[in-house]
Amino acid sequence: SKYAYVRNYELPDPLLPGCFLICRLDGHSFHRFSEEHGFTKPNDERALKLMDHAAMDVMTEYKDIVLAFGESDEFSFLLRRSTNLYNRRQAKILTTLTSYFTSCYVFHWSKYFPDTSMRYPPSFDGRIVLYPDERSVRDYFSWRQADTHINNLYNTAFWALVKQGGKTTSEAHATLRGTVSAMKQEILFQRFNINYNDISPRFKKGSVLVRVIPSERSTGEKKKRARTRTEVLHCDIIGDEFWMARSFILAG
Amino acid sequence: SKYAYVRNYELPDPLLPGCFLICRLDGHSFHRFSEEHGFTKPNDERALKLMDHAAMDVMTEYKDIVLAFGESDEFSFLLRRSTNLYNRRQAKILTTLTSYFTSCYVFHWSKYFPDTSMRYPPSFDGRIVLYPDERSVRDYFSWRQADTHINNLYNTAFWALVKQGGKTTSEAHATLRGTVSAMKQEILFQRFNINYNDISPRFKKGSVLVRVIPSERSTGEKKKRARTRTEVLHCDIIGDEFWMARSFILAG
Amino acid sequence: SKYAYVRNYELPDPLLPGCFLICRLDGHSFHRFSEEHGFTKPNDERALKLMDHAAMDVMTEYKDIVLAFGESDEFSFLLRRSTNLYNRRQAKILTTLTSYFTSCYVFHWSKYFPDTSMRYPPSFDGRIVLYPDERSVRDYFSWRQADTHINNLYNTAFWALVKQGGKTTSEAHATLRGTVSAMKQEILFQRFNINYNDISPRFKKGSVLVRVIPSERSTGEKKKRARTRTEVLHCDIIGDEFWMARSFILAG
Amino acid sequence: SKYAYVRNYELPDPLLPGCFLICRLDGHSFHRFSEEHGFTKPNDERALKLMDHAAMDVMTEYKDIVLAFGESDEFSFLLRRSTNLYNRRQAKILTTLTSYFTSCYVFHWSKYFPDTSMRYPPSFDGRIVLYPDERSVRDYFSWRQADTHINNLYNTAFWALVKQGGKTTSEAHATLRGTVSAMKQEILFQRFNINYNDISPRFKKGSVLVRVIPSERSTGEKKKRARTRTEVLHCDIIGDEFWMARSFILAG
Ligand SMILES: Nc1nc2c(ncn2[C@H]2C[C@H](O)[C@@H](COP(=O)(O)OP(=O)(O)OP(=O)(O)O)O2)c(=O)[nH]1
Ligand SMILES: Nc1nc2c(ncn2[C@H]2C[C@H](O)[C@@H](COP(=O)(O)OP(=O)(O)OP(=O)(O)O)O2)c(=O)[nH]1
Ligand SMILES: Nc1nc2c(ncn2[C@H]2C[C@H](O)[C@@H](COP(=O)(O)OP(=O)(O)OP(=O)(O)O)O2)c(=O)[nH]1
Ligand SMILES: Nc1nc2c(ncn2[C@H]2C[C@H](O)[C@@H](COP(=O)(O)OP(=O)(O)OP(=O)(O)O)O2)c(=O)[nH]1
Ligand SMILES: O=P(O)(O)OP(=O)(O)OP(=O)(O)O
Ligand SMILES: O=P(O)(O)OP(=O)(O)OP(=O)(O)O
Ligand SMILES: O=P(O)(O)OP(=O)(O)OP(=O)(O)O
Ligand SMILES: O=P(O)(O)OP(=O)(O)OP(=O)(O)O
Ligand SMILES: [Mg+2]
Ligand SMILES: [Mg+2]
Ligand SMILES: [Mg+2]
Ligand SMILES: [Mg+2]
Ligand SMILES: [Mg+2]
Ligand SMILES: [Mg+2]
Ligand SMILES: [Mg+2]
Ligand SMILES: [Mg+2]
Ligand SMILES: [Mg+2]
Ligand SMILES: [Mg+2]
Ligand SMILES: [Mg+2]
Ligand SMILES: [Mg+2]
Predict the structure, then answer these.
(1) What is the DSSP code (8-state) at residue D132?
(2) Which is deepest, B43, B65, C150, D60, by most CB within 10 Å?
(3) B11–D16: do the CB atoms touch at under 8 Å?
(4) Average pLDDT, chain B
(5) What is the DSSP letter of D151?
(6) What distance in Å separates the CA atoms of residue A66 and residue A52, rounded to the nearest whole number?
(7) Fold of domain B15-145+201-251
(8) Containing H/E element for C24?
């Protein structure tokens, strides 16, 4: 039609080849959403598992995602450097991942919150960041996992002071102001007999979703199935071990 | 932390000031999704109303959207030229709108499909296109509504031939190949006694969501409430009438 | 060759259709360049005319430039909204204009500075900014011309104080600190008997290069030649008069 | 002033960190420029040396350029991966390099063409391409040098056929159509007794400008001076040798 010229205003938005893509999603105003739905503090296992489930679905659908990391209301997805998903069109990749994750989150809600009906539709923002080399990808995930640890230690101490210590929230903040990690762990142990090491790895390390490495011995169809299966771990991803055992992640 | 430098790879993505923003969402693989959920052919009123509901929620949440137009598995949202939503950050606007629309679609599903449970989570792609002037915005919406008409006429004739005329789908395609609008209307009328004019405006014109114009006489709180209420129309938006009655849409 | 894949890293960079393009060039470190070549202070007519000459050549070469404005070490070029120069490829337009202007500047140097040989090659930075409507284009040029006036008044007063008033540069700065326009004109008049109105329009208004409007009576070849001739003015471009007499500038 | 808001239309354009930048300049319509100025065919040593001189000046001015490669009417500049030149602002880097190169070309013209006055100002287009890793940078330069070889062999054979062989240009084209490298070398040798190996390395390999490696023994000021001196080579840059001897190029 004579109106079709308006399509010319749609400009191409290809992402630079040869770079890793990381897509990070983050819950929009989850401060409010978590309050309204009575999320357990500091960590709600149901909420976190729901996030993992949605992320798992995303990885099942988009095979070029080789790794995902989640914590709190956010998830990061790593697409392999050479991905040609949607011809690397930025908005297309970004919106389909964001949309599908959101959809899965709402879709699976009742499995994790059978007794809490969803009061309003949650949403997520998304962004894609390009990383040109292995080092910066590694550092990206270290950044997120270090963040998980810092936040979790703070929140764990904070809510122990409030819930078990009977402090007001302002008192708890004041108590923790300026403390380093070791001091927070000390407070937890001395005052509440909580050994931080015993806290669930899910809370301390976040969730790591990664394709399963087929065992040496499995072959053919079996191997293929393994490669496309994804597992949920709560392990360290800052050190080298995780990556050395999975060189395929940064391979190509 | 020493990893925080990775944030520097996040680049700014502000949208040019002074331009209208149109965000168009489109169902991802809705050919399959509509099949799997038994959408009525050619038009499923439940599905279309669900789309409208989700779009309505989006407009309620994002006040800078002044107009929306929906058809089939897609919706277009017009943000006013001077919007400062998220400082006009492209990915932020694009993903929150896409995500929230998706969320609402899944959230409200059972209201429109009480007897059809959702078999898998649907998703939508999204894009933002800038239009610098009123003319191109008008032409954009004309483009979409002309498309609605063309598709609907074709589909209506096609499914009449198949469902009522007993043709195979290839025969129906063959029958319609090369026909102009008038001929399709003729086929509908002659063979199936369907007067295209009598077809539901929703199917012929799509859905137009627009903020209500406060009446001359209403004042204060009443006026404000009106301005923030949104109505769903199925009217022509190609001619001038619609726009002249609502100069606020293109105003600023 | 097997290396040709590296071309895929060249990404498209089309500029949004329907917008005016303004390309602004600015001399790189002309503080130093003007010193080293003994430019007259505050305004060197030779230097300004050389800038005009280079800009004129650019307009002769690139017919889609409908207006140019120059002051000091900078020049702004307006390309018509519907230009399809190099398919609106950003880097291509930007670099060819910048390069050609630079080349002309060096090429014509000796015509304006017959007694001053160029000591080192000057360079210019360039940028393209999109403006979606007539208002913002008008305001852009008003911004530059207002800047010309402000700077020129300041510099004129400043150098009068230094050269004729025997002040040091710091004293001159101190004298002018906090003064409004009227006060600066007053200083010029009272202390140095300079009537600011008598200052050359070139210095007060900058240089306006614009295609000649063919007279009503001229026809055919004559009209065409006129349309492609460009004149240099030093007139006001903030008010409406200039633009009303030349509606073609903003037309399309 | 009240017009200053137009600056908000200037959008940021930072280049992705961690990537190598390659800026390639290419003479605008040098087919015509070379004709008009009587460049020797197939290679004009004066013209090529002038290009080298301009490129050398650019490297002297912009220390973050670690390597440059020139052939015909083009030059490519490699900026180190971690460069922070102009805060990695794309247009700023691109235009200053393009402009300065152009300026130097015109400025030095008469040194290389003492008997040919410049008839009109030449210009260059420019582009910046990002390369995320060493491999793609190496391949980029291999691409250009392979191109040099292919073009030079073709042009050498072509002009031998025309100038010495008395062929028309169409006959020469026809003779070479479909021939591989070895056949062209054969033609040169059999018909014109030209051993391609004896052709000037400048023509076969192009120009490689690279910072001098300070000798092991030199220290302090001497070392520093060496590091900032640049040499012009006409050597192979496709193989590993060149790069292994200069690991600093790709280092950081
Ligand atoms: N109680 C509880 N709250 C959680 C849990 N996970 C996340 N949240 C809440 C706590 C934080 O207020 C919020 C995540 O922080 P953000 O920085 O993402 O802020 P928020 O989503 O409110 O704002 P945003 O739209 O992302 O700028 O989500 C959880 O497991 N339990
Ligand atoms: N039966 C039925 N199908 C519908 C209705 N609305 C949309 N659809 C289906 C028909 C089309 O196959 C599809 C919309 O066409 P699209 O061009 O968006 O294709 P699709 O979503 O399959 O692929 P895409 O991922 O958008 O490229 O949705 C409806 O009301 N009834
Ligand atoms: N004496 C004299 N100097 C002039 C004339 N026109 C321009 N200039 C000098 C004065 C300023 O220092 C300089 C223009 O100011 P800019 O803000 O463009 O600074 P500059 O070019 O030094 O630095 P830049 O590389 O643009 O950031 O050029 C003139 O007619 N006479
Ligand atoms: N005779 C002669 N011509 C040369 C020499 N170096 C370059 N040229 C000419 C031959 C080619 O026509 C031209 C370079 O080819 P390009 O592909 O860059 O084309 P041109 O610059 O004409 O167009 P462009 O504006 O780059 O698209 O420059 C030389 O050493 N001798
Ligand atoms: O944690 P982030 O990256 O979401 O950082 P932020 O402070 O929320 O900023 P924004 O989401 O606005 O980029
Ligand atoms: O109708 P559109 O705009 O979605 O057009 P398309 O042919 O689906 O193309 P794409 O979604 O890949 O831009
Ligand atoms: O006058 P401009 O626009 O050149 O402004 P600037 O302060 O020189 O900044 P820039 O670094 O953008 O040239
Ligand atoms: O050789 P290049 O890269 O200049 O390629 P081209 O065919 O001239 O294309 P353009 O300069 O228009 O990108
Ligand atoms: Mg955020
Ligand atoms: Mg959040
Ligand atoms: Mg968060
Ligand atoms: Mg599509
Ligand atoms: Mg679709
Ligand atoms: Mg569709
Ligand atoms: Mg500047
Ligand atoms: Mg300057
Ligand atoms: Mg300046
Ligand atoms: Mg080219
Ligand atoms: Mg060329
Ligand atoms: Mg060339």
Answers:
(1) -
(2) B65
(3) yes
(4) 96
(5) H
(6) 15
(7) Alpha-Beta Plaits (3.30.70)
(8) strand C20-27
- Classify domain C11-144+200-251 by CATH number: 3.30.70.3000
Task: Give, in order, the Cα–Cα distances in Å from C222 to each of B33, C219, D220.
Answer: 65, 6, 70
- For residue C46, give the 3-state DSSP assignment: helix
Q: Most C CBs within 10 Å: which of A6, A7, A8, A87, as the mutation test of the C interface?
A: A8
CA of D60 to the centre of ligand 3 (A): 23
> Superfamily for A18-141+201-250?
tRNA(His) guanylyltransferase (Thg1) (3.30.70.3000)
Question: ∠ CA(A204), CA(A206), CA(A211), 5° rounding?
Answer: 140
Q: Which of B25, B103, B136 sits opposite A6 (nearest CB)?
A: B136
Predicted local distance difference test score (pLDDT) of residue A227: 73
CA distance D3 to chain A (A): 28
**C-alpha R_g of chain A:** 21
Q: Are D223 and D214 in contact (CB under 8 A)?
A: yes
- Go through chain A and tell me how many residues it has: 252
Pick the residue with more confidence: D94 or D225? Answer: D94
Ligand 4 mean position to D31 CA, how many Å? 4
Alpha carbon distance B145, B237 (integer Å): 7
At C127-143, the pLDDT tens digits run 999 999 999 999 999 99
In this structure, how many other beta carbons lie within 10 angstroms of the beta carbon of residue D8? 14
**Does position D224 have pLDDT exceeding 80, yes or no?**
no
Domain segments of chain A as ranges: 18-141+201-250
Query: Residue C143 in 3-state DSSP?
Result: helix
Work out the burial of residue A227: count CB atoms within 10 Å of its CB; fewer than 13 is exposed, 13-18 middle, 19 or more buried.
middle
pLDDT by residue for chain C (252 residues), tens only, comes to 899 999 999 999 999 999 999 999 999 999 999 999 999 999 999 999 999 999 999 999 999 999 999 999 999 999 999 999 999 999 999 999 999 999 999 999 999 999 999 999 999 999 999 999 999 999 999 999 999 999 999 999 999 999 999 999 999 999 999 999 999 999 999 999 999 999 999 999 999 999 987 777 788 888 777 778 999 999 999 999 999 999 999 998
Chain center to CA of D103: 16
ipTM passes above 0.95? yes
Mutate to test the pocket of ligand 4, among D39, D43, D46, D72 (most ligand atoms within 8 A of CB): D72
- Report yes or no: B62 at the A interface, CB cutoff 8 Å: no
Q: Is D133 on the interface with A (CB under 8 A)?
A: yes
Record the tokens describing residue A215, joined without a space: 């065992």
CA atoms within 13 A on the CB side of D7: 8
pLDDT confidence band for B229 (50 / 70 / 90) = very high
- C-beta neighbour count of B135 within 10 angstroms: 12
Q: Yes or no: is domain D12-143+200-250 CATH 3.30.70.3000? A: yes
Secondary structure in 3-state letters for chain B: CCCHHHHHHCCCCECCCCCEEEEEEEECCHHHHHHHCCCCCCCCHHHHHHHHHHHHHHHHHCCCEEEEEEECCEEEEEECCCCCHHHHEHHHHHHHHHHHHHHHHHHHHHHHCCCCCCCCCCCEEEEEEEECCHHHHHHHHHHHHHHHHHHHHHHHHHHHHHHHCCCCHHHHHHHHCCCCHHHHHHHHHHHHCCCHHHCCHHHHHCEEEEECCCCCCCCHHHHHHHHHCEEEECCCCCCCHHHHCCCHHHHC
When pLDDT is averaged across residues A100-124 and rounded to a whole number, the result is: 98
Contact A50, A112 (CB under 8 A): yes
Rounded average pLDDT over D106-115? 98
Strand-by-strand arrangement of the B20-27 sheet: B124-131, B20-27, B74-79, B65-71, B207-211, B230-233
What is the DSSP-derived secondary structure letter of residue D14?
B
Q: From ligand 5's centre to the CA of B252, what distance in Å? A: 28
Q: Whose alpha carbon is nearest atom 6 of ligand 4? A: D72
